[in-house]
């Protein structure tokens, strides 16, 4: 897999309050062919620089001074919905993982991961695939199902849900099962880009903002086959 996105190098921003760690991650990414467009050492600085640099991927620590990482995630994803956030944290606490995902993070990697694991995670995050340290993916899918079991807010005043095409529904069903975009492309014998387009179209039709909301929508309607 190349470190390019739409014919250009994948742009990355690294946020961590420890300068040596931040610089090391940025250096590893640069040497691997990524374009590190910005770094930041605290929450408010991260929000400002992310909005200005508009990277493809934000590698984000959660424990930041000034503004917690989850709040940074919420703000930058709201400003740039196409931005992918990969949390890189020392914490493997389930509550931290779930809070990060609910805030819009695409993936969650522990700092104990190897450099190769990190590079692969950034590549996959840029492609839109969910990336989790082994053992955490099942936790996140379990939380999706728990959320789907909660009563939905009343929608009496909301318009009738838009109709998805047969292929969009098929892609949505596989997303809800936890398959990556690459796996979906292989299963349906279509390109990775086509899968991304179907997901983006579905998000737009349903007025959803990220994969977390999309999976919850699918599970609420029984599309995950669970």
Describe what is shown at a glance.
This protein has 226 residues and is α/β, with parallel strands linked by helices. It has helices at 19-31, 43-53, 69-79, 94-102, 115-126, 136-148, 166-176, 181-188, 192-206, 211-220; strands at residues 4-5, 8-9, 11-15, 35-40, 57-60, 84-89, 107-110, 131-132. It folds into two domains: 4-141, Response regulator (Rossmann fold); 157-220, Winged helix-like DNA-binding domain superfamily/Winged helix DNA-binding domain (Arc Repressor Mutant, subunit A), CATH 1.10.10.10.
Question: Topology, pairings included?
Answer:
Layout (H helix, E strand, L loop, with lengths): L3 E2 L2 E2 L1 E5 L3 H13 L3 E6 L2 H11 L3 E4 L8 H11 L4 E6 L4 H9 L4 E4 L4 H12 L4 E2 L3 H13 L17 H11 L4 H8 L3 H15 L4 H10 L6
Helix pairs in contact: 2-3, 4-6, 6-10, 7-9, 7-10, 8-9
InterPro entries: CheY-like_superfamily, NreC/VraR/RcsB-like_REC, Sig_transdc_resp-reg_C-effctor, Sig_transdc_resp-reg_receiver, Tscrpt_reg_LuxR_C, WalR-like
Protein name: Response regulator transcription factor
Pfam family, one: Response_reg
Tell me what the structure shows.
The protein has 226 residues and is of the alpha/beta class. It has two domains: 4-141, Rossmann fold; 157-220, Winged helix-like DNA-binding domain superfamily/Winged helix DNA-binding domain (Arc Repressor Mutant, subunit A, Orthogonal Bundle), CATH 1.10.10. 50% of the residues lie in helices and 14% in strands. It is built from ten helices and eight strands. It has helices at 19-31, 43-53, 69-79, 94-102, 115-126, 136-148, 166-176, 181-188, 192-206, 211-220; strands at residues 4-5, 8-9, 11-15, 35-40, 57-60, 84-89, 107-110, 131-132. The strands form two sheets. It has a six-stranded parallel beta sheet, with helices on both faces. Strands 1-2 form a two-stranded antiparallel sheet. Strand 5 (57-60), helix 3 (69-79) and strand 6 (84-89) form a beta-alpha-beta unit. Helix 4 packs across helix 6. It is globular. The two termini are 32 Å apart. The relative contact order is 0.10. The model is unreliable at 154-160 (pLDDT under 50). The modification 4-aspartylphosphate is found at residue 61. Residues 157-222 form the HTH luxR-type domain. It holds the Pfam family Response_reg. This is Response regulator transcription factor. Residues 11-126 form the Response regulatory domain.
């Amino acid at each position: 897999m190349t470190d390019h996105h739409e014919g250009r190098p994948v742009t990355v921003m690294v946020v961590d309050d420890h300068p040596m760690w931040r610089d090391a991650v940025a250096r590893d990414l640069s040497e691997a062919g990524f374009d590190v467009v910005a770094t930041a050492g605290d929450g408010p600085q991260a929000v400002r620089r992310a909005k200005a640099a508009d990277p493809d991927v934000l590698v984000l620590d959660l424990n930041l001074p000034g503004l917690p990482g989850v709040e940074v995630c919420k703000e930058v994803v709201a400003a740039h919905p196409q931005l992918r956030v990969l949390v890189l944290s020392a914490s493997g606490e389930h509550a931290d993982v779930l809070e990060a995902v609910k805030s819009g993070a695409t993936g969650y990697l522990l700092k104990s991961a190897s450099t190769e694991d990190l590079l692969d995670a950034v590549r996959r995050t840029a492609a839109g695939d969910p990336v989790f340290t082994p053992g955490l993916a099942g936790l996140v899918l379990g939380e999706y199902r728990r959320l789907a079991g909660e009563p939905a807010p009343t929608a009496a005043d909301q318009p009738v849900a838009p109709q998805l095409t047969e292929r969009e529904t098929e892609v949505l069903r596989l997303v809800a099962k936890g398959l990556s975009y690459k796996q979906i492309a292989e299963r349906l014998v279509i390109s990775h880009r086509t899968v991304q387009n179907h997901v983006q179209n579905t998000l737009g039709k349903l007025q959803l903002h990220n994969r977390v909301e999309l999976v919850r929508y699918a599970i609420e309607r029984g599309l995950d086959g669970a």
